[in-house]
């Protein structure tokens, strides 16, 4: 390391770049911190230059007070100003200026610009950036691997990466107790507060469906066709995240799900660009803005989280639906030339906040994928983080000056180093850095970042690489100012327990889930408003989850379960269900005890079903192995991803015999001069291969119910889906069909009982058959031939029924139009 890397970064060298970094994408200058007083009421700043001399603590007119909280940290209240928090064990002391209290984070006994909460965020960022070393910035450029050990006692690994300067930590412990997570957050802040410049820890989470209030996920939110619900959900969850010490959401997922087989469709807002745009705008607004008691937007505040929308420039068009976490899914393809369409939810949605004065999503996560084109129309054939074309679009064309972070695990050998496998980790980060990336996801060691700095000295000179580090350092630290972490990163454990998942939020979340339930079929008014009277008798078949192997390589035994809590079902119905045999015949578990096999069920007999009014089969959409779908690792063979439950053989006229994308591999060909070695494109086609959904037995349960119910009984199928599905295998046998995307199965009970009227609409198309799936183009939204049921209804985008029939309202009028093809924002 050359000696200059130990010196403070020069603002003179980086002035131009720093001003760009500080401009952000916001519509107005944000408040300096999340806990700042409303604009115009912050106490005035004394004239003079920083660092400033301070007063004797407690002298003169004192405008602050402090008290020790029950959690052990000190709370400092400034009259008409910011409330501070610090740990008495961190070594940090208070200083006083103009009668107000400030934290002496760098322990120099003076008031520095970044310590002065009266200054705006840009001024504070500029001041601390001028004091940071390259090592400081290298630590900020790291985003930790998933952390699941969250207690008040930090692990050795956590202490190690904090000691190395890492300051962005991913809390992946959603299932852990709320109090533990809050205590862990406080412990992290107390540990780092006395180090160096006192840079706090920014803790993040992926979007959560457990351990917080039960709002619909993105796909279900899209089914409501109501962006105001997305805003409400995001705002409530932001409050709960902040209560646990979490200041960044790694979301929302803003990809356009134009490819129905993609395993991550369930995290998107569907395949319509306009609906996805509006939902993303609302969700980011709800996450980033703090609202007062009357619902007025206050901009950045104590209940704000930074939104990191993902995965730029849209990861939806994976070839044949394969997922880019794996080498077999690393290529996005654009046979319909619709690359620009995938930008719409980002540039017209997440970067154009009409419901929040924060203006734009604060951060963006890049995708793993390579955008395939043999002529490199979309840039070099490398993953998005390394792509000058893709990151250049973001930085230069669309003027995004917030944080760009890579997706997790793209640096180390043997990880998702798509297109840059031949580079060293240091060279990889240098390439990403020079493309415009700021931060590296899922990596705890700064060594490759410091290697990249040395590479930069050789490649572009020390002045230029210092300036480039300065630019990213300013962006990264500014995010901490936006949500108030420098002033008070601590949380109240008791308040966290009261806020997270509270009864009011749970009720509101379930009400929102209710609005997402879709009714696709309702022959003979099978589902109608409750009329009172005796409880109906309903057969609810048990469902089988087959044996599987988890990501750790452990065998997960098969299991038979009822898809709803029997207590919940009994509230609505007299329930008839299946029984298990006394002896199981499945694979023995680790203790040698046999586990349930599929054959170990005793289905309810015709005689037992004779008095049933309804059968309610609650199933999942066809399962293909999640992110691992599309490839058989045991045989190294590409296989189809199927949207039907039964066996699908990919031999139709629309199945590609040659894949669009593929690696360049060594191939031997014979010619008159002998056998020659040449480079040829790998063929990833699965033509002729077959696949059966791992939950094909769900279809068996539907058909069993249909074949064994009495003539007067009605068959209702409820599909709790994460992807589109093909209804053809059961629709003719069903009197009614409900669907929901990741909702609580209890809602299907309420819908059948007539407790509420379904109002949801399809945010995506349901294909007619697998030939329709093979014919549609991966990058083109809403181009699939849709299923038509026995009643003549087409299961197209924006279709849904209520008790009165096909829904035709303001939502369908707005969104059931031809899909957008290009962003309204054309860039600079």
From TrEMBL:
Reactions the enzyme catalyzes: Hydrolysis of terminal, non-reducing beta-D-glucosyl residues with release of beta-D-glucose
- Domain Glycoside hydrolase family 3 N-terminal: residue ranges: 166-438
Q: Mind telling me which residue stretches traverse the membrane in this protein?
A: none
Q: Where is the signal peptide?
A: 1-23
Look up the EC number in the record and give it. 3.2.1.21
Q: Which organism is it from?
A: uncultured Eubacteriales bacterium
The UniProt entry's coiled-coil ranges are none
Per the record, the GO terms for biological process are: glucan catabolic process
Family assignment from sequence similarity: Belongs to the glycosyl hydrolase 3 family.
> Where do the segments described as Disordered lie?
27-52
Keywords associated with the record: Glycosidase, Hydrolase, Signal
Q: Which InterPro entries match?
A: Cellulose_Degrad_GH3, GH, Glyco_hydro_3_C_sf, Glyco_hydro_3_N, Glyco_hydro_3_N_sf
Q: Which SUPFAM superfamilies match?
A: (Trans)glycosidases, Beta-D-glucan exohydrolase, C-terminal domain
Which domain of life does the UniProt lineage start with?
Bacteria
Q: Output compositional bias ranges, type Low complexity.
A: 31-51
Per its record, what are the GO molecular function terms? beta-glucosidase activity
UniProt protein name: beta-glucosidase
Stored Pfam families: Glyco_hydro_3 (PF00933)
């Amino acid at each position: 390391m050359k000696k200059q890397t130990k010196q403070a970064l020069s603002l003179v060298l980086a002035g131009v770049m720093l001003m760009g970094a500080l401009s952000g994408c916001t519509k107005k200058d944000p408040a300096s911190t999340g806990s700042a007083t409303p604009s115009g009421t912050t106490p005035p700043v004394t004239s003079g230059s920083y660092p400033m001399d301070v007063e004797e603590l407690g002298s003169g007119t004192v405008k602050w007070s402090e008290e020790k909280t029950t959690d052990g940290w000190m709370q400092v209240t400034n009259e008409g100003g910011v409330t501070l928090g610090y740990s008495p064990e961190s070594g940090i002391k208070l200083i006083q200026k103009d009668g107000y209290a400030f934290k002496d984070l760098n322990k120099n006994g003076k008031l520095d610009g970044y310590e002065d909460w009266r200054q705006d965020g840009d001024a504070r960022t500029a001041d601390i950036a001028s004091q940071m070393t390259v090592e400081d910035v290298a630590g900020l450029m790291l985003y930790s691997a998933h952390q699941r050990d969250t207690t008040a006692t930090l692990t050795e690994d956590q202490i190690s990466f904090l000691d190395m300067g890492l300051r962005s930590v991913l809390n992946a412990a959603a299932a852990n107790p709320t109090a533990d997570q809050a205590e862990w957050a406080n412990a992290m802040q107390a540990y780092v507060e006395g180090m160096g410049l006192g840079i706090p820890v920014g803790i993040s989470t992926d979007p959560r469906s457990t351990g917080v209030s039960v709002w619909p996920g993105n796909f279900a939110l899209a089914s409501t066709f109501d962006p105001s619900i997305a805003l409400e959900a995001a705002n409530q969850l932001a409050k709960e995240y902040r209560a646990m010490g979490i200041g960044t959401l790694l979301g929302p997922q803003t990809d356009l799900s134009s490819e129905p087989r993609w395993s991550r469709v369930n995290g998107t807002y569907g395949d319509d660009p306009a609906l996805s745009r509006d939902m993303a705008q609302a969700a980011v607004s709800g996450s980033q803005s703090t609202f007062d008691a009357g619902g007025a937007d206050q901009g950045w505040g104590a209940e704000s989280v930074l939104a990191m929308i993902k995965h730029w420039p849209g990861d939806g068009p994976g070839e044949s639906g394969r997922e880019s976490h794996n080498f077999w899914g690393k290529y996005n393809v654009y046979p319909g030339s619709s690359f620009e369409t995938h930008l719409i939810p980002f540039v017209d949605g997440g970067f154009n906040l009409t419901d929040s004065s924060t203006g734009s999503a604060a951060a963006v996560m890049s995708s793993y994928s390579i955008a395939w084109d043999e002529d490199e129309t979309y840039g070099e054939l490398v993953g998005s983080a390394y792509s000058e074309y893709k990151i250049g679009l973001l930085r230069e064309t669309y003027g995004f000056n917030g944080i760009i972070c890579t997706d997790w695990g793209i640096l180390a050998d043997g990880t998702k180093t798509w297109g840059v496998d031949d580079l060293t980790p240091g060279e990889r980060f240098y390439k990403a850095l020079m493309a415009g990336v700021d931060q590296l996801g899922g990596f705890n060691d700064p060594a490759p970042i410091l290697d990249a700095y040395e590479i930069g000295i050789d490649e572009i000179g020390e002045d230029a690489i210092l300036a480039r580090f300065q630019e990213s350092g300013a962006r990264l630290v500014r995010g901490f100012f936006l949500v108030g972490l420098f002033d008070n990163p601590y949380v109240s454990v008791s308040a966290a327990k009261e806020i997270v998942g509270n009864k009011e939020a749970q009720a509101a979340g379930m009400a929102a889930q209710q609005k997402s339930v879709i009714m696709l079929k309702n022959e003979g008014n099978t589902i109608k408003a409750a009329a009172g009277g005796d409880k109906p008798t309903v057969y609810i078949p048990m469902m089988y989850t087959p044996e599987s192997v988890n990501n750790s390589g452990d065998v997960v035994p098969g299991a038979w379960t009822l898809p709803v809590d029997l207590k919940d079902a009994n509230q609505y119905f007299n329930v008839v269900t299946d029984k298990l045999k006394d002896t199981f015949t499945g694979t023995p578990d680790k203790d040698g005890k046999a586990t349930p096999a599929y054959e170990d069920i005793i289905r309810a007999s015709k005689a037992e079903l004779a008095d049933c009014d309804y059968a309610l089969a609650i199933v999942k959409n066809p399962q293909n192995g999640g992110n691992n779908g599309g490839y058989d690792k045991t045989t190294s063979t590409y296989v189809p991803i199927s949207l039907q439950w039964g066996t699908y053989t990919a031999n139709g006229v629309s199945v590609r015999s040659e894949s669009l994308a593929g690696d360049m591999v060594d191939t031997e060909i014979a010619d008159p001069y002998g056998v020659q070695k040449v480079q040829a494109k790998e063929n990833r086609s699965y033509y002729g291969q077959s696949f059966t959904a791992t939950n094909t037995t769900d279809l068996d349960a539907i058909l069993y119910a249909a074949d064994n119910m009495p003539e007067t009984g009605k068959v209702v199928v409820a599909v709790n889906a994460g992807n589109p599905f093909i209804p053809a295998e059961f629709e003719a046998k069903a009197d009614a069909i409900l669907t929901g995307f990741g909702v609580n199965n209890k809602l299907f009970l309420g819908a059948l009982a007539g407790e509420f009227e379904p109002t949801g609409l399809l945010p995506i198309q349901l294909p007619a058959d697998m030939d329709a799936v093979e014919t549609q183009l991966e990058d083109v939204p809403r181009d699939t031939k849709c299923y038509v049921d026995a009643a003549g209804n087409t299961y197209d985008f924006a279709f849904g029924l209520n008790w009165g029939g096909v829904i035709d309202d303001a939502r369908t009028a707005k969104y059931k139009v031809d899909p957008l093809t290009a962003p309204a924002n054309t860039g600079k």
